[in-house]
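Feature request, filed as a ticket because there's no other form

It would be nice if the structure record came with a short human-readable summary line next to the tokens. Right now we just get the raw output. Example of a typical job, pasted below so the devs can see what we mean:
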Amino acid sequence: MKKFIGWVLVGFCSLLLIVFLSSLIIISPEFADNQKPILESLSTIGGFVLIITILTVGLINGIKRIRKPSQYEINEYNGELNLELNGQIKYEDYRNYILTQTFKKPIYLVLFVVFMLLIISLLVSEAGIISQFMDNPLIFIVFGAVFLAPVITLIQIKKIYKTNKFFHEVLTYRINNEGICIKGKTVDSTQNWSHFYQIKETKSFFMLYQGKMVATILDKSMFNEEESEEFQCFIKSLNIFKK
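Raw output as currently delivered:
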């Protein structure tokens, strides 16, 4: 299904890109000769550019869906890994991670582009801005989505962090060649490395995924420089997809 959607995106976006790029080339000479206001001409060209940007993002996303996963080199690790870490996940780091993962999705880029197109149309239109708001409910929907989505997301993040006891405990992580043992007041978990299918490194965390939406989070601030380098060398020896 993933590859099918990828091929649909590639075909659809490629076709529309050809159409819009051809149209832009055809109408470009007309802009040099016409007497339209500069702002109106720029808004028309800007609309074409923004639409082409959306289609390009869709094309790239489609290619990512159909291409084979990259083959990662697995390095040997002959040492004895024995790390003991203590720490608590900070709200600011967790919030920033979730926001980054949420708003980098293509749907939000498309929504932002639509928002910019509406702004341009409001500025160049001869009708008043207030009357356009009253006559076009789509404007309310787009503006509401752009401004409310971050607020709603922040509320949800804070609620999840506040109600999840895991985030409020100082946990002890014992990491060795076999797996990870996590202990706290209400947590006592041991996981072998074979339980993880993907490792993702971000600015603040090592994310060890057991499932698509389930991950063990290791805060980088718990590691000193030597421990971080040793852990990174170790995970490169695992037969786990790395991102």
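Something like this underneath would help us a lot:
The chain has three domains: 2-66, 82-88+169-242, 98-159.
Helices lie at 2-33, 38-66, 91-103, 106-124, 129-135, 137-163, 225-235.
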